[in-house]
Specification:
- The chain is α/β, with parallel strands linked by helices.
- The chain has a domain of 212 residues: Rossmann fold, CATH 3.40.50.
- Helix content is 39%, strand content 16%.
- It is built from 9 helices and 13 strands.
- The strands form 4 sheets. A 7-stranded parallel β-sheet has the order 3-2-1-4-5-6-11, with helices on both faces.
- Helix 3 runs parallel beside helix 4, helix 5 runs parallel beside helix 7 and helix 7 crosses helix 9.
- The N terminus is likely disordered.
Length: 320
Amino acid sequence: MPDQLGGPRPAAGEPLRLLIMGASGFLGGHVRRQAAAHGLTVLTAGRSAPPGSRSHQHADLSRDAPSMIAAVIESARPDAVVNCAGAVAGEPETLAAANITATCTLVTAMLQARIPTRLVHLGSAAEYGPAEPGAPVAESAPLRPAGAYGLTKLAGSGLVEVARTAGLDAVVLRVFNAVGAGAPGSGLAGRAAALLRQAMVAGTDVRLGSLDPVRDFIDARDVADAVLAAAAAPSLPHAVINIGRGIGVPSRDLIKELLTVSGLSVAVREDAPDSARSGSRPGPRADITRARADLGWQPSRDLAAAARDLWEAVGASAGH
C-alpha cells in the first residue's frame, strides 16, 4: 500500500462535491452549513432529510445493502463522502448497528462503487478511553475504550482503516468533545444548556454530575472546518487524525461559559448521577500535530464562542 492516498480532486475552479451521510444530526448539520457557506456543492443522504435540503437521497446504512448505497454514491458522483451518521447513546445493539454495521455497509459500498471518491469518517476520542493527566494523546496512543459507545466507534474506525488498506481513499477524524448548536442531550454540553434554559423559565437550580473531569472541548464549527480540509486535501498520509483544541479544561469551565453567555445567576449543583457515556473519568486532550501537518488545519474558536453558539441555538428552538 502506498504511504499516501489521494483521489481525483475537482478541476480548477470547480467547487468540491460533498455527499454528507447523517446531515440532519449534530455534527452533520455543522458540516452541511460550513460547506454551503464555503460555496461547496452539498448533497445529503440518510434516513431523514435536513431542513432545506434540495438534493437528498434516502439511505439507511444500518439496513440497506451495500449495493444500494453504492448506487446512491454513483448517482451523486461526489468528490468526498462525509460520514457523520452514528449513535452516541442507546443499548449496545443500537450502538453496534449505527456505529459498526452502518460503517461496514458504507465502506463496502464505496469499494464497490464504480467511481473514485474519498471517505471522511468521524470517529471519537472515546476510542482512546480514560486518559492519564499530563501529555496530550497522539494517534499512536493505546486504544482502551471504557464503554459500549467507545467500543463501537473504535470498531467502526477500524473498518475504515481496513478499507483503506484495500485501496479506499479514506481518513478517520477522531473528534474530541464538540460543543455548539444542536449538541445532543446525551452529552454534557447539550444537557447543561437545556437545563439552564429550564432554570431560566422555572427559577430552579441546575443539577449535574461532577464537573471536575477534564475535557478537550472544541467548537463544532472547527470540526466542520477540519472535515472540509480533509475532503479537499491533495493526499492523506495517515489513516487517523485527532481533531480537538489540544487544551484540557475542567468541565466546570464549560458551565461557567454558558452561565456567562446566558446572564443567569442560578445555583449549579454537582449531585446528579454521572453520565453513563463518560462518567467522572478524565478524558484525553488531543495532540493535533498531525492535523496541522496533514490538513493545514487548527482550531480558530475558543470555548466561549462554542458556548455562545450552543446557547443561542437553544434559545432559538425555545422561541426566545
